[in-house]
What we know:
Elements: E1 10-15, H1 22-32, H2 53-58, E2 65-71, E3 74-80, H3 88-95, E4 100-105, H4 116-124, E5 129-133, H5 143-153, E6 158-160, E7 162-167, E8 170-176, E9 182-184, E10 191-193, H6 197-215, H7 219-226, H8 233-245, E11 250-254, H9 263-273, H10 277-283, E12 292-301, E13 305-314, E14 317-318, E15 322-323, E16 326-327, E17 331-335, E18 338-341, E19 344-345, E20 350-354, E21 364-366, E22 369-370, E23 385-391, H11 397-410, E24 415-419, E25 424-429, H12 432-446, E26 450-453, E27 460-463, E28 467-475, E29 482-492, E30 499-503, H13 515-526, E31 534-535, E32 538-546, H14 554-570, E33 574-588, H15 592-601, E34 605-611, E35 618-626, H16 633-639, E36 646-657, H17 659-666, H18 668-673
Parallel strand pairs: 1-3, 1-4, 4-5, 5-11, 6-11, 27-31, 30-32
Antiparallel strand pairs: 2-3, 7-8, 8-9, 9-10, 12-13, 12-21, 13-20, 14-19, 15-16, 17-18, 17-20, 21-22, 23-25, 23-26, 24-25, 27-33, 28-29, 29-32, 33-35, 33-36, 34-35
Helix pairs in contact: 1-9, 6-7, 11-12, 13-14
The chain binds guanosine-5'-diphosphate (GDP) and magnesium ion (MG).
Amino acid sequence: MPGSVSVAARSAAIVGPYLSGKTSVMEALLCASGEIQRRGTVKEKNTVGDTSPESRDRHMSVELSLARTKYLGDNWTLIDTPGSVEFHQDTVAALSVVDIAVVVCEPNPEKALALSPLLHFLDTNDIPHLIFINKIDTSTHTVSEVFDALQDVSERPLILRQVPLREEGKINGYVDLISEKAYRYGEDGSNVIEMPDVIKQREADARQDMLEGLADFDDVLLEQLLEDEAPSSEEIYQQFSKDLSDDLVVPVLIGGAEHGYGINRLWKTLRHDCPQPEITRERLAFPDHKQLIQVFKTQFVPHIGKLSYARIWRGEIHDGDHLGEHRVSGLNFILGQKNEKVREVCEGDIAALGRMEEVRSGQVLTQDGLLKDQDFCPDIEPPVYSLSIETLKHEDEVKLSTGLARLAEEDPSLSFKSNPDTHELLLWGQGEIHLKVALSKLERQYNVSVKARRPKVAYKETILKGTVAHARHKKQSGGHGEFGDVHLNIQPLSRGSGFIFESSVTGGSVPKKHIPAVQAGVKEYIVSGPLGFQVVDIAVTLLDGQHHAVDSSDLAFRKAGIMAMKEGLSSCRPALLEPIYELKISIPSPFTSNGQALISRRRGQILGFDAKDGWKGWDEITALLPQAEMSDLIIELRSQTQGIGTFSSEFSHLVELTGKLANEIIHPSSAAAE
Ligand SMILES: Nc1nc2c(ncn2[C@@H]2O[C@H](COP(=O)(O)OP(=O)(O)O)[C@@H](O)[C@H]2O)c(=O)[nH]1
Ligand SMILES: [Mg+2]
C-alpha cells in the first residue's frame, strides 16, 4: 500500500444527480482533510462549492467548483460538478481530466434510474469510478435494495465494500468488508466498536459476495476461494485497487455527507485505490512529451481575465513559462472562490492558468505549443431548447455579442445563431435553467439586459394552383419615365423543390440585360407572400413582356416583377406550410409508452422504436413532430422520465397546415380576439 511515499497529485470528480449531496460530500471531504475548519451546509449557503450567485440563488450547482487539498500527505484536487442534466457539459469536462469519479446517489432504489446516463458515460469511457450511497441517515430502504437497483443500471459489476449497521431501525454505522472491523458513526468520524453478533452472518455472506466478485477478475483469488482458503486483507486490498484502476469493478460505499458519516472511509478508499495520474495518462493515450497540459475548462473572470483550468499530465510549469507561443501569465490553485497564487505546478496538479488567450477548452499543450491532430475535447451535448433574445437597449448589441461569445467559449453546450427565416437571434442550450443562468450571467458580468421569448416557428407558404400574371409598371414624371411590362407564368412545385426562375422570352421583348432585374423583383416579393411568410416550392417563368427604348430600366422591370407576383399569387390559392422535424428520442424503456403518448399529443407521428444501441434498458423512438410543438418538448419529456430522457432533432420537411391552427397563425390577432 502506498504509505508515506509521496505521489503525484491526484484528482477526483464528484458526480451524480441533482440533490444527491455532491456539494455536501465535497464539503465533508474538505473538512475531514483539515482544509476547512467547519463543514458548511448547502442550506446555509456557506459551502466551498456553489459560490456563484447563480448557484446560491437556485440552491444548485451550476458550474464546477474546484478544491485543492491534502489528505495524509497526498495532494488532491476535488471537483464538485453540477448534477442537473442541463449543466452536464461541465461534468463531462471535469470527467475528461480526473483519475476517478465518485458517484453520489440517494439511498432510494426508485431513484437509481436517474444515474443511468451518467453510469453509461463512465462505463463507455472507461473512467474508474466508485459509488457513494449518501444520506444513509435518512434511508428507509435496505442497502441491498439500493445496491440491486444500481446494479440494474450499471454495465460494470458493483461490489459492496461495507454493510450497514442498524440500531433501532436507523443505520448508524458499518462493517468494513475487507478489514472486518465494525464502526459506529460519530460527527467527528467513526469509532471502532466490537462487531455485534446480529450482523456477523450477514457480514460473512456479504464478504463472500465481494470476494466472488473480485475473483471473477483474478485466477489466484478464485483458486483460493474454491479451496476455501482465506485470502489475506493485503491481497484483497491489492486486488481491489487493481480492479478499480483497470475499471473492471465499481466499489460501493455508504455514508452521510451532512454529518460526516463514512467520509474517512471514502477518503481512505480514494487514497489507496484511486489510480495514479500516470495510469490515467496511459488510459487517455497521451503521446510522449516533456510537458503535457490539458485545458478542460475556460472561464472569464471580471478584473482577472481569461482563466484556463488545466491538468498537468507531465512535467512542471512555472509562472511565465512559454508553451510554444503561449505564455502562462499567472498560476493559481483553487479552493472554491479563493485562488492561491503559486509559482509552479507539478505533475498531477490542476491549476488555473492566466491569459492563455488563444487556448480553448479541450486543447492540450506541450512545451512546443498546441498539440495538433489529436482531439481531447469531450463530445458536445446537442442543443434541446432555445430562446429568441434581443437587447433591451439597441446600443448594447456589441456588448451582447462579446458576452455571448465568451459564455459559449466557457460552455460549449451553449450556442447562439441568427435564424435567417425568422430574423431572430437564438440562444441554444440544454434547458430552461441553463439559458436563464446564461442570461443572468450576461446581465451580471457583461451588463447587458436582454428580452427573451419563445422562438418563432419558421412557417412558409406555397401555392396550390398556377396562373399567368401580367403587370406593367409605368411612371411618367418629366425627364426619364419608368417602363417595364412582364408576363409571368407562376406554377406550384412539389414539396422541397424550393424556388425556380426561368425565362422563355424570345425576340427581346424583355431585353436580356433586364431579365435579372425581373428575377430580383420576384425574389424580393416571395420573402413575404400573401399570407405573410416566405413563398417556396414555386416556379416562375418570364414568358413575355414589353420594353421602352428610353424609359425601361432595371428598376422598372424589378417593380413590374413585384407587381406581377403580388397580383398573381393571391389568385393561386396560397397555403401555409409548417416545418416538421425528425426526432430521435432516447428514453429509458419503462417510459417508452409515455414518450410515444407525448408525441401523439403533440400532433406527432411515431415512425418506430427500438432498443437503443449500446444502452442497457433504453429505447430510441423515431418520430416526426411539427416544430411548433418542439419548443418546450424537453421540459415535458424530462418531467416524465426522471429528468433523463432526451432527444436530437433535424429538419425533415414542410407540410401543408390547414383549418383552425392555420387560421390562428395567419391571423394571430383575430384568433386572440375570438
Ligand atoms: N439527511 C441528509 N441530508 C443530506 C446529506 N447530504 C446532503 N444532504 C442534503 O441534501 C440536499 C442536497 O445536497 P447538495 O450537497 O446540495 O446536493 P448536490 O445537488 O448533489 O450538490 C441538501 O439539502 C443537503 O443538506 C446527508 O448525508 N444526510
Ligand atoms: Mg451541488
